[in-house]
Specification:
By secondary structure, the chain is an alpha/beta fold. About 20% of the residues lie in helices and about 15% in strands. It is built from 5 helices and 6 strands; from the N terminus they run H-E-H-E-H-E-E-E-H-E-H. It has helices at about 60-65, 85-90, 100-105, 135-145, 155-165; strands at about 80, 95, 115-120, 130, 135, 150. A 3-stranded parallel β-sheet has the order 1-3-5. The chain is elongated, with a radius of gyration of 34 Å.
Length: about 160
């Protein structure tokens, strides 16, 4: 039982004192604090200015010419809503459009996205739809339930004309 030691401790050499840099020349890590002399790496703060930085050389993304056309700014984005959600939120005979969907909290009022109705789930209520797009399966289910669909075809040009008037 003489080998038993109830005090737990780390083995010798496991715990080292932290390196204290910039604490005088006699410490061995004074003056430049182990960073070498001058230059970007010796300074405090971020090491590189930004991703793609090439040390002052003109970066690749600026050397290459911008060519071609992107249709990205003109793409149409849709807020998609399944008919089973509309079944729960709307009463029989109501109109489903962007304003009523915003009132029920299904779409944002500020959103510039168009509205598309998808055919997920079933619908039994007779609703009137005034939306931008309807899927084929949703169209079948809505008409089967006795509802009507009006597709609103708005282009950006017609929106601009409306704003001017």
């Amino acid at each position: 039982m003489s080998d038993y030691n109830p005090v737990l401790h780390a083995p010798k050499g496991a715990n080292k004192k932290p390196k204290r840099v910039g604490r005088g020349s006699s410490s061995g890590l004074g003056t430049t604090a182990g960073r070498g002399n001058k230059g970007q790496q010796s300074r405090s703060g971020k090491r590189l200015p930004y991703v793609g930085f090439e040390g002052g050389q003109m970066p690749l993304y600026r050397r290459i010419a911008i060519r071609g056309f992107s249709n990205y700014p003109f793409k149409k984005e849709y807020d998609c809503i399944n008919i089973d959600i509309l079944e729960n939120k709307f009463a029989d005979g109501e109109t489903v459009n962007k304003a009523t969907l915003a009132d029920k909290g299904l779409v944002s009022r500020k959103s510039r996205k168009l509205i598309k109705i998808l055919g997920g789930g079933d619908i039994s209520k007779k609703l009137t739809f005034e939306v931008d797009k309807v899927s084929e399966s949703a169209k079948e289910k809505i008409e089967k339930a006795g509802g009507t669909i009006t597709i609103i075809e708005k282009t950006r040009a017609s929106e601009r004309l409306e704003k001017k008037e």
